[in-house]
Design goal:
TIM Barrel, 39% helix, alpha/beta, eight-stranded parallel β-barrel, binds ligand G3I, 345 residues, 13 helices
């Protein structure tokens, strides 16, 4: 019998992965079979963002999104749409929108066209992505600038009008931290009070070995679900390297949490750090299982370490190891620890 993530957690929540453009085009058969064996939910890592899907005012490009959805349907996967309204990865023409009339027209056309096109075929949407600052206030963006906070309510209303049955999410990072979480709770209430339909909150979960604390994650699950929305962990990865901002003046490339002298990093994560990562993943999944009735989906931000955005952020060309499969597509200790949580019972 083949053991897999999706089968181990089939009674708990969806186990998803983000797919790169190459993976959507099925360019690597080994990766495809891994994806199909382990995951039952997919998110497009980039191709549905506005600069790719709506490159010019009167031109949409649905070619890769069509493939993405066909791939999910062929494999009977839960299909998540990422993302409709986001200040980043905008097409150049969108950045030139000059007033509220034009912005309203853009939002209506963009959301209605995309959501209606895939009505009934996409299971949930990130309607708005990353609208909050770390202190919980609204982020300065072209949307806020042209329309004020009403743009948030409008986005959810437009999406619901285009597909009344699809689940609609607000998605952000660090929204398990107290100040941003408070802002996120206020935002959900505002959308509801304004007559918008919101079904869930996405906690991206770009986490680290020691951060955030399990207590804050637990509080987040409880406080968000108390508002009557589903909680999804939408972009999970655990960096084992520090963010330079956390170590002012330090040589970040030397600040590896395993052997500090190791540079360049090896292709495989050293054993001591493998163990730390495995323990961290196990404690997180244990918490997820405790609240499985409140959690709709747990999606990893990529299939294997070689593909992770964390290899290029915040410094280009670092070697990070944030996922459950290594660069050779082999399961890591972290994979086993997540599987074992379900085997012991
Ligand atoms: O499309 C160009 C390609 O033409 C060019 O050859 C190549 C050269 O670098 O760049 C390509 O664009 C890259 C794009 O990914 C598609 O591969 C960008 O440089 C690169 O910056 C971009 O990074 C993505 C990032 O979002 C952009 O903000 C990452 O892959 C993606 O993992 C990341 O995902 C975000 C979520 O959408 C939202 N939450 C945070 C998360 C991590 O940042």
């Amino acid at each position: 019998e083949v053991v897999s993530l999706k089968d181990s957690y089939k009674n708990d929540f969806y186990i998803g992965t983000a797919l790169s453009a190459d993976q959507i085009e099925e360019k690597n058969a080994n990766e495809d079979s891994l994806i199909e064996r382990e995951f039952n939910a997919i998110t497009a890592e980039n191709i549905m963002k506005s600069m790719f899907i709506h490159p010019q005012k009167d031109k949409y490009d649905f070619a890769l999104t069509d493939k993405f959805i066909a791939y999910g349907e062929k494999n009977k996967m839960f299909i998540h749409g990422h993302t409709l309204i986001w200040h980043s990865q905008l097409a150049p023409w969108m950045q030139k929108i000059k007033d509220s009339t034009e912005m309203k027209a853009f939002m209506k056309d963009h959301i209605t066209t995309i959501v209606s096109k895939y009505k009934g075929r996409i299971d949930s949407w990130d309607v708005v992505n990353e609208a909050l600052n770390e202190d919980g206030t609204l982020r300065k963006s072209i949307f806020l600038d042209k329309l004020g906070e009403q743009y948030l309510v409008d986005a959810f209303k437009l999406a619901a009008a285009a597909d009344p049955k699809v689940d609609l999410y607000y998605n952000d990072y660090n929204n398990e931290e107290p100040a941003k979480r408070a802002g996120n709770i206020a935002l959900i209430k505002k959308i509801k009070a304004g007559g918008g339909k919101i079904d869930g909150v996405g906690i991206q979960a770009h986490w680290k070995l020691g951060y955030p604390s399990l207590e804050e994650i637990e509080k987040s699950i409880l406080e968000y679900s108390a508002l009557g929305v589903k909680v999804a962990f939408t972009e999970l990865d655990i960096s084992v390297l520090p963010n330079p901002k956390d170590f002012s003046g330090a040589d970040v490339n030397q600040k590896f949490e395993g052997d500090p002298k190791m540079n360049p990093y090896p292709k495989t994560l050293p054993d001591s750090v493998q163990v730390k990562l495995a323990e961290r993943y196990a404690s997180i999944f244990k918490l997820f299982l405790k609240y499985k009735d409140k959690i709709s989906r747990v999606t990893f931000w990529g299939v294997h370490d070689g593909q992770s955005w964390l290899n290029d952020w915040p410094i280009k060309g670092r070697t990070n190891y944030p996922l459950l499969f290594d660069r050779d597509l082999k399961p890591k200790k972290a994979y086993n620890s997540v599987i074992q949580l379900k085997e012991i019972k």
